[in-house]
Amino acid sequence: MGRIFVVELDGQAYRCKFCKTHLALSEDLVSRSFHCRHGKAYLFSNTVNVVVGALEERMMLSGLHTVADIFCCCCGQIIGWKYEAAHERSQKYKEGKFVLERARIVDGWNSEFYIDTRPTPTMSDAEDA
Description:
Elements: E1 13-16, E2 22-25, E3 29-36, E4 39-44, E5 50-60, E6 63-72, E7 78-86, E8 98-101, E9 105-107, H1 125-128
Antiparallel strand pairs: 1-2, 1-9, 3-4, 4-8, 5-6, 6-7, 7-8
């Protein structure tokens, strides 16, 4: 197969959940309002360290699209898909963009998307004032 060259991104990067390889910069995030089989997903204008699979026609919630699954170049896990073509005019903005499934990525600055909103046990009401 050959040697794999991995791109290390400068800045806040989303990473593969399985092997922590850099995938996309936060500044390339287009939308957080996408959904997939496993829950939420994010739309990016650019990604790195991915392998693009075979093209296929897929019926999505927003209509018929030509897409290709994308895989992490290091561990081979499926991490989302790339929009190659949209068949409806209103969906053309997706062409050439990438969707990363939230359940398969972590962010590079907090390492998870989970935010604990519970009060810290060491803090009492008296210290709050």
